[in-house]
Amino acid sequence: MLSAVTISLVPEARGGPFVFWNGLAEGCAQAAALGFDAVEVFPRDASALEVSQLRTLLEQHRLKLAAVGIGGGWVAHKLTLTQPDSDRRGRARDFIRGIIDVAADFHAPAIVGSMQGRAEGEVTRDQALAWLGEGLSELGNYAERKGVPLLYEPLNRYETNLHSRLSDAAAWIRSLPTRNVRLLADLFHMNIEERELGAALQSAGDLLGHVHFADSNRQAIGFGHTDPTAVIAVLRRLGYQGYLSAEILPLPTPEAAARQAIAAFKHATQATPLASGSSC
Ligand code: LER
Ligand code: MN
Questions:
Q1: What pLDDT is attached to residue 275?
Q2: Which CATH topology does 2-271 take?
Q3: Is the pTM of the predicted complex or chain greater than 0.90?
């Protein structure tokens, strides 16, 4: 398993669960200094991502790109795959294709989280799921042609009413006419929605494509009350070799959050003792 830490490039997302906020250069330098394997980047849109700068920084710091979040499409542009206006749904797909193009150049997947939207107003849940399924199928196949999976992330009930549990989402994804959508398991959302983290991860099985490594209070693992032991045990049983990515609040400071996240990752995956001052 590999470690990753988040960098947000979206000013409108301030207050959100991302560790580094001061640009790619500073975020990559700090991630590398702390020993992360990769960064997960949250751009405003595809055109706002400085691809050549990112490539240089990743090479310079020997980092990989773990994934690219597409939530900027919702936060900054108010687009989702399930809006009643077909023109806006089309623009949402275009937006996501743009991110897939950029991410695929780095062999990284794009993440459909908040751009899944929700059923509300005139849009029933069945209708929203039909639109979401069409969107993910088309975009999943598009990503497949680029050689990368597409990640779909169930969110807690306060963020979506479409899929909030991994087992429901897994069954639904298996019913779609694409074989290229994988599940993102965010331990923060799961702490709200799942009866038991290990069993939920097990239900995702080989669909599991990415993990957001966040504690119950959305801080670094060890700052809340999640016991990562069972999580890691199940991930090992599943043969999961992907990322545990710290999509967490930058608390008490970005550096302290990142330091705790990498200490907890090493402790959980390599049985490394935690540095004094850390807990988990
Ligand atoms: C995105 O990865 C996520 O977890 C959402 O809660 C974004 O707010
Ligand atoms: Mn997440």
A1: 58
A2: TIM Barrel (3.20.20)
A3: yes
